[in-house]
Specification:
alpha/beta; TIM Barrel; eight-stranded parallel barrel; 7 helices; about 25% strand; globular
């Protein structure tokens, strides 16, 4: 049976010290190598990239946590995913602000790396993430209400070409993504909208599809075997 849904499922790999880790609630210092995934028995990133490709996925989000925290780099993992044919969203922290996107590789500029409002221009026509703590948007120098942030994007004309909305406090928890947040953003933003952080099940993805979300970022539900393909 062919799916009538248009929302695309995009796997997330959080990589630290060369290994895939289980990200929970954005507390990076507490992340540990993943050990209970049905996809791979080892936390070796290349195993996950190869297996996800076999499962039919062709897009992937890779968070290089060492680069984000300024203690190293996992660029080889990103390069391997590109070599294997993935379209890659690469989060390498502030380092991504000075990198040039070249298909199939796009660098994610997270709000948590930006000073508000002085650096908002960096996200114009790039791939950017709204790094949220429930209803607030985290910047490097402040935490702002979602509405104020969206109004600033509108007033300054600095909408990204792809917007990733990530609830950091729900990452790895399977507590669900706040549908109302997706609705508010979709009302103002016409680009590609991808959400993540706490996605729990297929029924939730169906609700996000009805809102007009273009993609969802998932990790835990993949590792548990609850979702097994890019479309449902």
């Amino acid at each position: 049976m062919v799916s009538t849904m248009t929302v695309k499922i995009i796997p997330v790999l959080d990589v630290m010290r060369g290994l895939v880790v289980h990200a929970v609630e954005g507390v990076r210092e507490k992340y540990r190598p993943i050990s209970n995934s049905i996809i791979c028995s080892s936390p070796e990133p290349r195993c996950f990239i190869d297996k996800l490709l076999d499962m039919g996925f062709d897009e992937i989000y890779i968070a290089d946590l060492d680069s984000i925290m300024g203690v190293g780099s996992n660029l080889d993992v990103i390069e391997y995913a590109v070599k294997r044919g993935f379209k890659v969203f690469a989060d390498i922290g502030r380092n991504g602000m000075n990198r040039v996107d070249e298909e199939p590789l796009s660098f994610v500029i997270g709000t948590e790396y930006l000073s508000y409002p002085n650096e908002l221009s960096y996200i114009r026509n790039r791939v950017s993430s709204l790094d949220m703590v429930e209803h607030g948007v985290r910047f490097s120098n402040t935490l702002l209400p979602l509405e104020k942030t969206l109004n600033s994007y509108k007033e300054l004309g600095c909408w990204p070409k792809t917007l990733l909305v990530i609830n950091l406090k729900r990452v790895g928890t399977m507590r669900g993504f706040n549908i109302e947040i997706a609705e508010k953003i979709r009302e103002l933003y016409r680009g590609r909208l991808i959400v993540g952080g706490g996605i729990a099940n297929i029924e939730e993805i169906k609700r996000l599809d009805k809102v007009g979300v273009d993609g969802v970022l998932i990790a835990t539900t993949l590792h548990k075997g609850l979702i097994k393909s890019p479309y449902i």
